[in-house]
Amino acid sequence: MPAPREQVKGWEYVVVDTRSAVKLPQTENIVFLASLCYAGVTAFNAIKECQVAPGKWVAVIAARGVEQISIQYTKAIGLNVIAVNINEEQLNAANMAGADYLLGPSTSTYFDSVQETVKDDIDVAVNLAASKQEYDDMPPIIKWGGILMVVGVPSEPLTIDPLDIIFEEYVIKTACSGAAKTLEECLRFQYREKHQTICRVCQARRFPFIAGIEENGKAKSAYVLGSRE
Question: What pLDDT does residue 1 have?
Fold first, then answer.
């Protein structure tokens, strides 16, 4: 199947169940829309399902591509954001995405730094990363009765103290990457707010390289495969 500057193995037509399809708005920036169909809607659902009032504090754990988009959404609905990450370069990207405060490898302990920054514990901790250690670090920074938003899926089982849940020290919520309905909500929000997500376009031939840095946790943004960079 021919494509601009590329040769793609595939077919000219694909059959899709209408319940799984979404009508995209007319736009010349189709690459931008591609970033919403997975990374964008995942970040959107994670923040939307927190259901907290503007002015609250949200910690976004990790600062890679999806997390950067979630920071943008968090700021767009009036929440305050702390980005937590061990990679300084990714923290710089989180700063560009709009995070109010950054906690990185130079920080001695997340707990003390959060206390010093917001004068209290945070209301919500959102983890989109597939890391058990990052989940283990989250409960101490959440205020009593706050929210632990579970999105990332680590390879190891999570370790959660049942007493924390029984006494509602924090509440566990979750959000999936989304279905057609939630993608429509994401698109409407995007165009209503005139919101531009952060993503980088790379040629399809660079897919092995992109997959490698994603797997190693070194991605600095969300990536979209296109015909031009």
Answer: 45
